[in-house]
Amino acid sequence: MKNKPIGVFDSGLGGLTVVRELIRALPGEDIVYFGDTGRVPYGGRSFETIERYAREDANFLLRQNVKYIIAACGTVSSVAPHTGALLPVPYKGVVAPAAKAAALATKNGKIGVIGTQATISSGAYSRELSQIDGSFQVFEVACPLFVPLVESGWIEPSDPVLKLTVRRYIASLLDKTIDTLILGCTHYPILSGAIGAFCGESVKLISSGHASATEATRELCELGLLRDERTGGKVRFYVSDITASFSDVTNILFGGDLAAQRTLVSIDD
What we know:
CATH architecture of the largest domain: 3-Layer(aba) Sandwich
Mean pLDDT: 93
Distance between the termini: 26 Å
Number of domains: 2
Low-confidence stretches: none
Helix content: 40-55%
Strand order of the largest sheet: 4-3-1-2-9-10
Radius of gyration: 17 Å
């Protein structure tokens, strides 16, 4: 069991932020990534559709013989947290780890959350944070244009469209004097340059990708599922559509274009 890979899925390319953090924390682990680029974004879909997509994505990873699954998708983690209930392997979403990290980071108790429309509508982050500390003030904003910007490769912090979009979504949160901002979608850390520049140093950005990778590392250790090898892990990338932005995103996250390493899979299959 130890030598099986870790499985990670997302609606598109945002979950690669989790893969990057896993590689840093666990360089000896094999990882299988599935990005559902053919059906991205999930955030505007019905709850029923999101649940079906989540089951299909998890089943694909199970067929790759994984030992652990991370739903590196804020939308799935918020809307369909029960996806892992019937799986034969441990399953982790991104909501609880990110909420825990934000709770530790905030000084004034005012926490902002940005996510897809489905994530914000679910109220998952507010519920999780209130369970940690009922005195927290949580302010949430849906940012439906962020995922399409990432998937289209519009990710440079200096891009005027991106800067305008960041201002449009986040200005109201700064008016609430938040000191912590949860990037409640794993696509959003790819835009952290532009988001951080707008928020300034007084606001701590919480990457759901980093938080979930940290939590997965802890849990794998507790379960005795860490590989004995400490280096040399391999990553396999699967996508449901070939997109030009894959190269842009992997260049930023991994310092190189991994397009040659991706494998196209059919949703129908």
